[in-house]
């Protein structure tokens, strides 16, 4: 009986260690920090309440995102992909601007995966609704606070940055647009 208890405790210890190791291997740790620079006057578009970098503030950067599953947790943010919008330049995937009335998204660097999801659809679920949107851009988690990034900080590693069309399709009242806990998956 004593040896059975020892085997059971040993087995449980192995299972627990494996789960801890698996969780550690799937984690996404910060890759560094960048120091914010004050944007030149009029150079940070604050449409959709976008943040502008603050002089001297340290911003965390990531080269990875949490693992993708059939229902990946994320934070939905709002972005304009139109010319002159707070998204800055044209989209990375097709070098085009996209109407705010089209359901399109940018994914954090790790999920963008070097463009492997470009022009593919993802399904976004939140607020009791779902919508399909096309990936057209990267929400850069590795850099920011410069002209190329419209003087905005780096994206966190768990962002789905969406057009107004996505927020409308999810039925979120316009006054509540900004950040929303969602899940997403490849469509």
From TrEMBL:
Protein name per its UniProtKB record: Kiwellin-1
Record-level GO cellular component terms: extracellular region
InterPro entries the UniProt entry points to: Kiwellin-like, RlpA-like_sf
Keywords: Secreted, Signal
Entry superkingdom: Eukaryota
Signal peptide: 1-18
Any single Pfam family the record assigns to this protein: KWL1
Species assigned in the record: Salvia divinorum (Maria pastora)
Family statement: Belongs to the kiwellin family.
Keyword Secreted: yes
